[in-house]
């Protein structure tokens, strides 16, 4: 399963999300929304207005969600 974290610099919840994914051994890609306009549009089209936005297979969510991360592995 591909896991992508859409993030912004200096985002506490983004840092917590990526640290937890790393600690659980979940591989992920990170995309900085301040540098990728197309990714920003994609995240907004999913209805999200906050970061991080995590897309894991068919599932996606916003914010630091240890429960969702725990379900990944």
Automatic annotation (TrEMBL):
Q: Does Electron transport show up as a keyword for this record?
A: yes
SUPFAM superfamilies associated with the record? Thioredoxin-like
Q: Which InterPro entries match?
A: GlrX_NrdH, Glutaredoxin, Grx-like_ET, Thioredoxin-like_sf
Query: Is Disulfide bond there in the keyword field?
Result: yes
Q: Which GO terms describe its biological process?
A: cell redox homeostasis
Question: Where would you find the membrane-spanning parts of this chain?
Answer: none
Glutaredoxin domain sequence ranges: 3-61
Q: What superkingdom does the record give?
A: Bacteria
Matching PANTHER family: GLUTAREDOXIN (PTHR34386), GLUTAREDOXIN-LIKE PROTEIN NRDH (PTHR34386:SF1)
Q: What NCBIfam families does the record point to?
A: GlrX_NrdH
Designated name of the protein:
Glutaredoxin-like protein NrdH
What organism is recorded for this protein? Polymorphum gilvum (strain LMG 25793 / CGMCC 1.9160 / SL003B-26A1)
